[in-house]
Structures are given as C-alpha cells and as structure tokens.
C-alpha cells in the first residue's frame, strides 16, 4: 500500500533537505561536513565535540576541537608540495582542502586574524561618536559603517577558520596580546572631524591594500575581499563627505578639519607597515603571493592618490619635506617616525590598553549569548539524530 499523502510529502521534504545539505562540502582543519553529518576519515567520529545545526533553509556549523591536531598530522609529501607550487606559479587559488606548507598556513592565519581583529577593534573609535554625530543623517550613516566593520570581522574570522583554527582561539590570542591588530586604532578620536579623516585616510589606506588582496593566493581570503572592498569604498566616500562639509564651513570648522589631518596623516602612512627592508614577513608572503605588493609600494600608491585630494579639500599635509618628483611623477614625503610606530605596535600607544580592555569586557559580557547558541545547537543535533 502506498504511503499517505502527508507521509509522502514529509519524505520528499527530507530528501530535498538531504540533497541541499549534501551539496555543502566544506573542510575545517581536516573535518569534512557532508550533508548533515560531520566526519573525519582520519579520526573516529567520537573524538572532539561536534555540534551541527541544519535545516531546510540554513546550514550553520559550530565546532570545538584542537585546532592544531589536524595540522600537526599532515604529512609533507613531494606530490602535495609540487601541486602547491604549481597552483602558486599558475596564479590560481589555494583552497582549504589543498595541501599547503605549514609556513603558508601559519602566515595566512596570522594575516587574516590580524585583519579580522582590526575590523572589530576599529569599531571602537567610531562608535565613540555615534551619540554625538551632528545630525540624524550623519548618525545613521555612522551606525551603518560601524555595522559594516562588524560584518567584515565575521567574514574574516570565518575565512580563517577554514584553516583549522577556531574563532575562540583567535579571540583568546588577541586578548592575551599574542596577536595584533592595526596600530592606527590605538589613537583617540578627539573631534567630529576625526570621523571624516578616518573614513578618508584610514579606510582609504585600507582600500589600497585590500584591492590588491583580492588577488591573494588563498581563495577564501580573496573572495572575502571582494565584498569588503565594495563596502569600504562607501566608508571612504562618507569620510570625504564629512571633510568637504567642514572645509566649506566656518573658520572653526576648517580649523577642526586641519587639526584632524595633522594628527592622522602620519599614523595613516604607518598602516602599511615598516619599510620592506625591515619587514619580517614580506619576502616570504610575496613569494607565496599572499601579498601582491610590498609595504613601500602600497604606501607610495596611497600617498600619490591622497595628496591631490588633500589639496582639493584645502588641507595642508603636515610634512615640510613633501615634494613632487617630476621624474617619477610621484609625491615624496619625509621620514616616518618609526620609534612611534614600534612603540604603538608593542603596546605603548595612546589607547592600546583601553582598546583591549574594552574588547575583553565585551567578550565576557557576551558569554551568555554564546552559551545560549551552543545549547540551541545541541538541541538541534538531538532532533536531527532522532529524525535520521
């Protein structure tokens, strides 16, 4: 006797769900997700705490495990190295399932984690001015921008997780000072003009770097950059718009804009890192095509596009040595204060301790949300197991 209509519909629904989930194949530190099952061919399924939430409209995975266990167990083989070298030579993308050298994996994790941390910490100096924005329009735009930065951090943490490191570990490393974020966010925002200067200079510098990163060799990082760059372009326009209004206003507003320029110009140039000769990672990252342009080349590109914009705004760049080189058709600047740069990087900037303290407090205050999400995921696993 054929199944009843409701039973047949339930069976068809489960089969549709199964097909859609089977199409999802992702690797996270050697753990494969096939359909609604988590499995690792190299390990018994009982190892590690695995949590899965899956339904017809969403596929959300939460996993806790030793993030380095699968990395340590990967054998270095000549065939894998050759395939990796071929991918890099062909300017193709390295994907999470591909074999890769441990040095490459560690370098990509370090760079993506630092990028993700910077997006999240970077919310603090701008959130400081949400309640003090001069108009409702400016306030709504600033809220949208801060929200974007949170999303960018999530994209990048997710991309980093594809290399077998958990988000919780990344957060812990940041909180303990074992991982860095961009030094620019350790400076205070003292006036509304800083919201314009951050958007114009800081986000402008980020765009110069991130457009190039769309061509980075690690696939998930490259793809994340496409969406992030589109949103960062809005941030830069928002900042320039604020400065256009201020430099077209009263003498006091013009003075406010110039003061902000004086304080943020040099830290913005520091965002690209030390000179190539002083950079620990540049040579190796360039060889692996993780980085596509050197620190000095990126900084020069930013200077060349920004100086004419400053002239258009009527702002004076705080560099008495600034000059135009007619032979190279590039703007030449004075030397950056590298003592200040390294002091901020090492934790002695104006607001290093405050930024991390605020971040740790927010993480601890949100523990109940994570606990609730974890409990919900456990319940969904039980329901899926019963219906299997």
Q: Summed up, what is this model?
A:
By secondary structure, this protein is mainly α.
Structural features, described:
This protein has 388 residues and is mainly α. The longest helix has 29 residues, at 219-247. The protein is built from 15 helices and 7 strands. Helix 6 (136-161) packs antiparallel against helix 9 (219-247) and helix 8 packs antiparallel against helix 9.
* Largest β-sheet summary: 3 strands, antiparallel
Secondary-structure element series: HEEEEEHHHHHHHHHHHEEHHH
- The neighbouring-strand order within the major sheet is 1-2-3
Span between termini? 23 Å
Low-confidence stretches: 1-73
Number of helices: 15
What is the rounded Rg?
24 Å
Question: DSSP strand (E) fraction?
Answer: 5-15%
The helix-and-strand class reads: mainly alpha
Q: Share of helix among residues?
A: 55-70%
Number of strands: 7
Shape: globular
Mean pLDDT: 83
């Amino acid at each position: 006797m054929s199944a009843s209509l409701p039973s047949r519909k339930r069976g068809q629904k489960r089969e549709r769900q199964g097909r859609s989930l089977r199409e999802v194949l992702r690797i996270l530190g050697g753990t494969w997700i096939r359909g609604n099952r988590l499995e690792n061919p190299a390990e018994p399924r009982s190892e590690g705490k695995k949590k899965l939430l899956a339904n017809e409209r969403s596929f959300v995975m939460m996993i806790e495990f030793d993030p380095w266990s699968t990395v340590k167990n990967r054998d270095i083989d000549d065939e894998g190295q050759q395939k990796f070298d071929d991918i890099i030579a062909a300017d193709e993308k390295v994907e999470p399932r591909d074999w890769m050298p441990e040095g490459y994996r560690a370098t990509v994790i370090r760079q993506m984690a630092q990028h993700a941390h910077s997006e999240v910490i970077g919310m603090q100096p701008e959130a400081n001015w949400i309640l003090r924005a001069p108009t409702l329009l400016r306030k709504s735009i600033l809220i949208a921008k801060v929200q974007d930065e949170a999303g960018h951090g999530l994209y990048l943490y997710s991309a980093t997780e594809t290399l077998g490191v958990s988000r919780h570990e990344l957060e812990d490393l940041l909180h303990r000072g074992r991982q860095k974020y961009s030094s620019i966010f350790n400076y205070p925002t003292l006036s509304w003009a800083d919201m314009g200067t951050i958007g114009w200079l800081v986000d402008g510098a980020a765009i110069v770097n991130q457009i190039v990163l769309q061509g980075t060799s690690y696939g998930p990082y490259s793809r994340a950059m496409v969406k992030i760059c589109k949103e960062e372009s809005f941030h830069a326009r928002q900042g320039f718009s604020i400065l256009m209004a201020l430099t077209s206003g009263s003498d006091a507003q013009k003075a406010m804009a110039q003061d902000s320029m004086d304080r943020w110009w040099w830290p913005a140039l520091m965002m690209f890192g030390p000179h190539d000769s002083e950079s620990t990672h540049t040579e190796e990252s360039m060889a692996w095509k993780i980085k596509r342009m050197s620190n000095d080349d990126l900084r020069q590109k930013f200077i060349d596009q920004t100086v004419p914009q400053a002239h258009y705004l009527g702002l004076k760049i705080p560099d008495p040595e600034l000059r135009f080189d007619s032979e190279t058709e590039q703007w030449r600047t004075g030397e950056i204060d590298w003592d200040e740069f390294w002091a901020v990087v090492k934790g002695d900037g104006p607001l290093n301790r405050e930024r991390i303290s605020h971040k740790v407090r927010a993480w601890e205050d949100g523990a109940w949300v994570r606990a609730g999400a974890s409990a919900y995921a456990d319940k969904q696993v039980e329901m899926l197991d019963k219906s299997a």
